[in-house]
């Protein structure tokens, strides 16, 4: 038992280390920008040029300021093609990230560590064309600052490069496993709606969003984010279903306090299930690892003790494994944590053995009944100093061919006519295990 406990603690320690590496903020390993913090007064003066910031209350303004400071300190800003990075550039670039993720639990964009800022549109050798901005899986976001500024200069035309690229970055963060299950659930809601809207945009029957939204799902969501912040009233009036989907993706609504938003508008389905489609880790994976590394030892230990024949043992084990698969299918597969094929493999080699090991362990450790039986010793065979074989007769007087080995400590009491008392423990799930046995000398079974 001590060895098993040691293995469990060691495994838990390794698992915690692996999990911490998976969820840690990756920007911590990236170089910081050489930026001397400016005063909140000066930063506030710069941000007051943004309509979103101006409409915040005093408490939210302080949160917004602190987060902009965080981005300016933690991210690396690179001026490209002669672009000079100033406090204003840092503040404005950070503000778009803070704005779009303002009500989200994960607002730091941990996968992205570098912003490349160009003075104007730039040529991309990768795409072989001129671009205004982009966000990639390498942790880099790039902007044309001229187009970035024009997006905030007119906050009502539905075109904002900063919000557009940060919307791309949010989806990438989700795919990297950094967003919570509510975000993934809301994303899938937009994903379903987009099938109809993108088709209509392409055939010209849906004209509210600009044509670029029909490119693909990523561009559709990015354009929706621009319209959501810059044309909220028109958006809500024209397509309430899509507007609500974006609202729950970002957990905010322009001009609406978050407390009112959460109470009055939350769709009921959002409360029903969690979504782990893009999660880095899920509790079922922990059970899979426990099943692979710990379950075999526990099963060997317990199955060697249980008083069942091989056929019965196989039948019970099959029922437990199949039954647990049916019970775990919904919380694991329906939540998106594992696909069906993945679930079958993980259950066969990890989840199933884990559940079976727990089943046998609980049965063995929680007795609900002890059955005591007395047998008269009819013959004794001493093989050596450590092995005493006794032949038994039950209380009805019927001789048994069974042989039992008793401990050397009981050797002095072992002789014909003594009683061998055996105890059989019945566990919580009805399976029996051998208990203690001892000898009572010079007593006669009637």
Helices and strands in order, then pairings?
Blueprint (H helix, E strand, L loop, with lengths): L1 H22 L16 H8 L3 H4 L3 H17 L1 E4 L7 H14 L13 E5 L3 E3 L4 E3 L1 E3 L4 E5 H9 L7 H15 L5 H23 L13 H14 L1 H7 L1 H11 L7 H7 L18 H11 L1 H9 L6 H25 L5 H26 L1 E18 L2 E7 L5 E8 L12 E9 L4 E9 L6
Parallel strand pairs: 1-2, 2-6
Antiparallel strand pairs: 3-4, 5-6, 7-8, 7-10, 8-9, 10-11
What labels describe this entry?
alpha+beta, OB fold (Dihydrolipoamide Acetyltransferase, E2P), 3 domains, 4-stranded mixed β-sheet
Any overview of this molecule?
- With about 450 residues, this protein is an alpha+beta fold.
- It folds into 3 domains: about 250 residues, no CATH class; about 80 residues; about 70 residues, OB fold (Dihydrolipoamide Acetyltransferase, E2P).
- It contains 16 helices and 11 strands.
- The chain has a 5-stranded antiparallel sheet.
- A hairpin with a 5-residue loop joins strand 8 and strand 9.
- The two termini are about 40 Å apart.
- The C terminus is likely disordered.
Summarize the structure.
By secondary structure, the protein is an alpha+beta fold. It folds into three domains: 26-271, no CATH class; 283-365; 367-440, Nucleic acid-binding proteins (OB fold (Dihydrolipoamide Acetyltransferase, E2P), Beta Barrel).
